Amino acid sequence: MTTRDDLALAHRLADAAGEAIRPFFRARYDLEIKADKSPVTEADRAAEAAIRAILEQERPGDGIIGEEYGSVRTDAERVWILDPIDGTRSFIAGRPIFGTLIALTQGGWPTIGIIDQPIARERWAGMSGQPTTFNGKPVRTRACKALEGAGIATTSPHLFADGDVPHYMALVAAVSGGSPRQGPVYGGDCYNYGLLASGFLDIVIESGLQSYDFAALVPVVEGAGGMMCDWNGEPLTADSEGHVLALGDPARLEDVLEAIHGADPAHHHDH
């Protein structure tokens, strides 16, 4: 079974999720608030169920970790990680900037990642060793010569834990150079990482992400020439605390880390 087969399957999974989601968008559906206070809709569940049905048939030995229906066979060498609607709040608000995230990890590392926006029918696909594609055509991140003026995005400033806020604000200050016009773009969830891969944003910063929030993003961003890491510049793993940085231009890493941590030696360490 080649990686190409896996990529073709991942595209089929994204197609199935989109078919399940589209009828619910800007329509009437049931909404619940989960124990962690996050919203979930019939669309999230229908999309994940559609993906899992195909996986159980086509890859019965592979593990699955999904946001809505839990985990099976997580000790398998190959594990699919699913987030049927990343950006449920955007979905509920009728904003077509949510996405379906599908990742395949092998030995714990994400080797395939898909970000699919089923309303605009936009799809980023990343695979280890291959250039990232957007709707089938290769995309690249853009160069970023300086931190000041960089395009920065985060889903919401309200999602940062209190202790993270000063670090986030310090990065915003470095990017904006005192001008609110240079400030962040808000909203977007996974969509921002696709835009970074396509060269429209330079930095995405978030905290509190789970593995199903970022596993699919890594092959997409890295296959386009960008990098993803935690707030100390370390690679993201399943054990990461959910502090996520994506940079379109890896040359800006030290600048970003310096801005986030300033003279705070507890966090920052030189490589």
Automatic annotation (TrEMBL):
Single GO term (MF): histidinol-phosphatase activity
CDD domains in alphabetical order: Bacterial_IMPase_like_1
Matching Pfam families: Inositol_P
Enzyme class: hydrolase
SUPFAM superfamilies registered for this protein in UniProt: Carbohydrate phosphatase
EC number per UniProt: 3.1.3.15
Cofactor field: Mg(2+)
Sections of the chain in a coiled coil: none
InterPro entries for this protein: His_9_proposed, Inositol_monoP_superfamily, Inositol_monophosphatase-like
Transmembrane segments: none
Alphabetical UniProt keywords: Hydrolase, Magnesium, Metal-binding
Family according to the record: Belongs to the inositol monophosphatase superfamily.
Name of the featured protein: Histidinol-phosphatase
Organism: Sphingobium naphthae
Chain's gene name: hisN
